[in-house]
Structures are given as C-alpha cells and as structure tokens.
Design a protein that fits this description.
about 30% helix
C-alpha cells in the first residue's frame, strides 16, 4: 500500500446482535467497502467472534487484529480483499 494513500476505516457495532445476524451485518458492511479498506467490528461473545472471523477469512478477507476490551467485548480488524 502506498504510504500516501488514505486508508478508509469503517466501524460496525454489533454487540447487540446474535448469530447469524452478526456475520450478515458484517458481510453487508464489508461489501460496501472498497478493496483494501479496514472494517473494525465491535462484538460480544465467543460464537459471534468465531463466526465473524471464520466467515471473513472464508470470503478472502484478512484478519489483522483482535482485542478484548475492559467490558469483555471484542474489536476485530478486518481488511477487505
């Protein structure tokens, strides 16, 4: 990536959603982004974390990082393919 290129970052809060809607909302958000853009997904629970990560990778996107916040929720950084 060119250092002069501006990175698009989209944030999605799905902490109130349950599976399978967690990945449905994530996929819709990823589909709206340009190739190379970053989606930060804020979610809650082990099942949504597993499903969002596994499905994003299965669709060819890259997982860059996951971090657990003090409230027990997780933020997942996904780069769109």
């Amino acid at each position: 990536m060119d250092m002069d290129q501006i990175l698009t970052v989209e944030r999605l809060d799905i902490t109130g959603e349950v599976c399978p809607m967690t990945f449905v909302r994530t996929r819709l958000a990823l589909d709206r982004l340009a190739s190379g853009a970053l989606l930060q997904v804020h979610l809650r629970g082990e099942e949504p974390l597993r499903n969002v990560c596994a499905n994003a990778v299965a669709l060819g996107h890259s997982l860059l990082a996951t971090r657990t916040l003090d409230d027990g929720s997780t933020v997942v950084d996904i780069r769109r393919r």
